[in-house]
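Deliverable D2.4 — example input (structure tokens):
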């Protein structure tokens, strides 16, 4: 055995053929890749393609404009709402005005109807008085002494006449029955109460309370009435000598007047 046989050889081991082939393939692949990349880079360098994506930038001015637009939109909405409220109020006002006008027309029509009715009643009363004047004039022409009948009051009639004459000068107050003021039927009722005769309160009923008598045959104490019997609107007491005492109206109060002052349309006798 050689004295150098135990010493390892310093020569590098020979690589196997398979290892060398693998390394050569890797190197070739790398070179191919580089070649393709180089070719692609050359093509891109020849015809560069640039694509830019611009994003909006919110500047201070744009923010202010946006805020102003929002404020304007809000103000416009408020204006629309205010206008709508005004339109609704105007519509309601027009509706109320229409209703008020209709009510006013109705009241005016009712007032006119009432006035026409009162005018008709007064016209009828005047016509009745005119007719009675004609009768009185005819009676006076045939017998002037008979138009006033008896002029001397006696008994209860004298007491009634004395009472009504004592009230001359007192005030006329609608609904009053004395002692300081009277209306027409209140005076008549109170006068007859002095002699124990109970009469109805209103002139319509007093005009039918006794026996109907002719105006040409009146006696002191007879009740005179104006209008028709049962619907008379005024009464007084005949006191003789062609005179009567009655509570006429607020301006004249209780007074004594001749029959010609306001000729009555009828008379009743209760005494």
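Example output (designed residues):
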């Amino acid at each position: 055995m050689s004295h150098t046989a135990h010493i390892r050889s310093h020569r590098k081991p020979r690589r196997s053929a398979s290892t060398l082939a693998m390394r050569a393939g890797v190197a070739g692949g790398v070179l191919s890749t580089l070649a393709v990349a180089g070719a692609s880079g050359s093509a891109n360098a020849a015809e560069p393609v640039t694509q830019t994506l611009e994003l909006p930038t919110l500047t201070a001015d744009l923010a202010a404009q946006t805020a102003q637009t929002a404020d304007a939109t809000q103000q416009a909405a408020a204006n629309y709402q205010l206008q709508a409220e005004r339109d609704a109020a105007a519509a309601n006002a027009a509706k109320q005005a229409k209703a008020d006008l209709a009510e006013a027309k109705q009241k005016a029509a009712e007032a006119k109807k009432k006035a026409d009715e009162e005018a008709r009643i007064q016209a009828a009363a005047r016509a009745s008085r005119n007719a009675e004047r004609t009768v009185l004039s005819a009676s006076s022409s045939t017998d002037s002494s008979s138009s006033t009948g008896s002029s001397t009051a006696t008994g209860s009639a004298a007491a009634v006449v004395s009472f009504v004459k004592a009230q001359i000068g007192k005030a006329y107050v609608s609904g009053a029955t004395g002692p300081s003021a009277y209306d027409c039927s209140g005076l008549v009722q109170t006068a007859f109460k002095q002699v124990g005769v109970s009469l109805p309160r209103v002139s319509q009923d007093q005009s039918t309370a006794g026996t109907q008598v002719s105006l040409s045959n009146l006696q002191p104490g007879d009740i005179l009435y104006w209008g028709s019997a049962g619907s008379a609107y005024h009464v007084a007491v005949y006191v003789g000598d062609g005179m009567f005492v009655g509570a006429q109206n607020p301006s004249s109060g209780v007074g004594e007047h001749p029959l010609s002052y306001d000729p009555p349309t009828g008379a009743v006798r209760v005494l």
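Residues 63 and 196 are 107 Å apart (CA to CA).
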